[in-house]
Write a structure and sequence with these properties.
CATH class: Alpha Beta
Helix content: 25-40%
Strand content: 15-25%
GO biological process, one term: carbohydrate metabolic process
CATH architecture: Alpha-Beta Barrel
Cofactor: Zn(2+); Co(2+); a divalent metal cation; Fe(2+)
Structural class: alpha/beta
Number of domains: 1
CATH superfamily: Aldolase class I
Organism: Linum tenue
Bound molecules: D-xylitol-5-phosphate, zinc ion
Protein name: Ribulose-phosphate 3-epimerase
Order of helices and strands: EHEHEHEHEHEHEHEHH
Catalytic activity: D-ribulose 5-phosphate = D-xylulose 5-phosphate
Length: about 220
């Protein structure tokens, strides 16, 4: 079984104090920092780009798990590699024509490739990306429509996680959207090992408790 990774989504942090917020999450036991990159074409929201990753990288050695909700992910590979991103997860809906080239370029820039899918996209679409010679290291199953934090977890997405886990016992399977103490069991029992959580962690009086509770549930 792949190791548990708890990844607070910095989208719920105070962006005016990003470095401090990142360190606070690491001190609370976070394994990764989840960075939500949105262009307003792929989703109806706009967040941060490579310059912010570059600034944050000067303050931390942490694994920066970048989730690119953008229309042209290929255009972002070079700048994100230079900025110091650790993981580069693109959406299959934005890369149906060029995912093979994209994976190669992400690896060539020293980042870990990942693929994400929206709730409406069937899981079978990502199998070729997990199995190819140039394969992704992680599949991110969206459990809300991408675009905003604080939405409700979609339990019906757990079928996708179960199918993936059955096929790929050691793959990193990440879930993102509406995860917290009340939904972690569904995700963990389906086989997710990487847990993104924004509002449940940042909104908690003791984020460390939420992080450790989720880690315990994943580790079973
Ligand atoms: C949504 C983002 C998520 C989001 C999660 O498009 O990909 O990472 O910030 O936030 P919560 O945990 O509040 O649903
Ligand atoms: Zn995300």
């Amino acid at each position: 079984m792949a190791a548990a990774k708890i990844a607070p989504s910095m989208l719920s942090s105070d962006f005016s104090n990003l470095a401090t917020e990142a360190q606070r999450m690491l001190d609370c036991g976070a394994d990764w920092l989840h960075m939500d990159i949105m262009c307003s074409h792929f989703v109806p929201n706009l967040t941060i780009g490579a310059p912010v990753i570059e600034s944050l990288r000067k303050h931390t050695k942490a694994y920066l798990d970048c989730h690119l909700m953008v229309t042209n992910p290929l255009d972002y590979v070079e700048p994100f590699g230079k900025a110091g991103a650790s993981g580069f997860t693109f959406h299959i809906e934005a890369a149906r024509e060029n995912w093979n080239e994209l994976i190669q370029k992400i690896k060539a820039k020293g980042m870990k490739p990942g693929v994400s899918l929206k709730p409406g996209t069937p899981i079978e679409e990502v199998y070729p990306l997990v199995e190819g010679e140039n394969h992704v290291d992680l599949v991110l199953v969206m459990t809300v429509e991408p675009g905003f934090g604080g939405q409700k977890f979609m339990p019906e997405m757990m079928d996708k996680v179960r199918k993936l886990r059955q096929k790929y016992p050691s793959l990193d399977i990440e879930v993102d959207g509406g995860l917290g103490p009340s939904t972690i069991d569904a995700a963990a029992s389906a086989g997710a090992n990487c847990i993104v959580a924004g509002s449940s962690v940042f909104g908690a009086p003791e984020p460390a408790q939420v992080i450790s509770l989720m880690r315990n549930r994943v580790e079973g």
